[in-house]
Amino acid sequence: xxxxxxxxxxxxxxxxxxxxxxxxxxxxxxxxxxxxxxxxxxxxxxxxxxxxxxxxxxxxxxxxxxxxxxxxxxxxxxxxxxxxxxxxxxxxxxxxxxxxxxxxx
Length: 105
Known about the structure:
By secondary structure, the protein is mainly α. It has one domain (2-104). It has 5 helices and no strands. The longest helix has 32 residues, at 73-104. It is globular. The model has no long low-confidence stretch (mean pLDDT 81).
């Protein structure tokens, strides 16, 4: 749900991106059996969408949190995975746009 809201690119996204990034990093997903993976996946997807949609506001928070003593190893791994996922997503989108332009010309 959060990922779809971020990808909709509301006008307020740039204003809220830093706070939303920090909140998504620090939130603890439920430990209910079987639901933890889906909650983690949703959190990961929302962070990737947020970093891709509002990079200037989000990257500073993610970088600062990566080196913060207030996050644990799993949160650091999440941040690195989100950065890698955003890079892959951006490259895929760029490739798709290039192929689309080639076909229309």
